[in-house]
Amino acid sequence: MPEPLHALSQASAPWWQPRVLVPAAAALAFVALAAFIASGHSFAFDTKLVLLFRDPANPAVPIGPTWFQEAVRDMTALGSFVGLFFMATTATLALWLCGYRHLAVGLVVSLLAALLASNGLKIAIGRQRPDIVSHAALTFTASFPSGHAFLSAVTLLSIAGFVGLASRRHDIKRLCFALAWVMIVLIGLSRIYLGVHWPTDVIGGWCLGIAWSTIAVAWLGRKMAASDPA
After folding, report:
1. In sequence order, what are the residues at sequence separation of 6 or more whose Cβ sits closer than 8 angstroms to the Cβ of residue 125?
2. What is the DSSP string of 21-76?
3. Mind listing the pLDDT tens digit for each residue in 92-133?
4. How crowded is residue 159: how many other Cβ atoms within 10 Å of its Cβ?
5. Which residue stretches of the chain are H helix?
6. Can you give the pTM of this predicted structure?
7. CB burial readout 40-76, b (16+ within 10 A) else e
């Protein structure tokens, strides 16, 4: 049965619980990565992992048959601005039409702020894209953090969290988060496979996305949900 809203918006959890420790650790990891990369340093494993997805005899060619390469491009498209826009629009309209208008507005505010933050961080840090392999997809911005990784994490985890608040059912919330994480991981790996991001770009994007979406759901989402139908 649906749980009352107050059961989903209890007082802040103790700091040692995973739902507090995980986003806090993710935020610290992102700050450490950003500082390290902005200072001009690099990671040896970045190069090794990028080459792991390439034909040893010809690094210009990704591993796997042609159909698999095309499938990876389809997966990376889900994390593009267009792909995430349609997902976010669908979730926002669904919340709005179901009467959760404050939650719908909160979701839009969180995602627009994340988009601005992504572009701002890319400009501020200015990391170059991988130059050791040919890019199998077009790129238009700097490398760190990966916009696909960051924005897909923010969008999908925020949607899962906001839908969970609206449904007030833990089974629905768990299902949404499970599906979100499958897509987030595949989108992030696709960016490395296509040679358009260093692995640390993707890791940084994931870390920031986890921290951002957690705050959005725990603070903004629950604040908005309190104003929506009981």
Report:
1. 34, 37, 38, 142, 144, 145
2. HHHHHHHHHHHHHHHHHHTT---HHHHHHHHHTEETTEEEEESS-HHHHHHHHHHH
3. 999 999 999 999 999 999 999 999 999 999 999 999 999 888
4. 26
5. 5-8, 18-38, 44-52, 66-78, 81-97, 101-125, 147-167, 170-193, 199-215, 222-225
6. 0.89
7. eeeeeebeeebeebbeeeeeeebeeeeeebeebeebb
Helices 101-125 and 18-38 sit at what angle, rounded to 10 degrees?
A: 30
Which tokens belong to 201?
Answer: 């770009």
Token readout for 78 is 């889900």
Instruction: Please state whether 205 falls in left (phi above 0), alpha (psi between -120 and 50) or beta.
Output: alpha
Secondary structure of residue 140 in the 3-state scheme: coil
Task: Take residue 15 and report the two structure tokens written for it.
Answer: 């700091």
Q: Classify strands 58-62 and 54-55 as parallel, antiparallel or unpaired.
A: antiparallel
Residue type, 16: W
For 71, the token pair is 């499938």
Supply 204's token pair: 């940084």
* 220: DSSP letter: I
